[in-house]
Amino acid sequence: MLKSIRKSIVISSITALLLISGQSAFAADSPTFFYTLQQLLSRFHLNLLAAGVEVDVQL
Q1: CA distance readout (Å), 26 to 23, 30, 52, 54
Q2: CA nearest 38: which of 19, 21, 56?
């Protein structure tokens, strides 16, 4: 139960981050897209750690 909740939180969070980044799928080959995504993901990860949520990051 807890694993599925974590998984859905991670999936919805990544989806939200993609929307927030304002980049379209067509710009996915742009280095700026990946840099922006990396920055957002690392900031989000730090926010989760600050909130006391245990996160297992696998890229």
Answers
A1: 8, 9, 36, 33
A2: 21
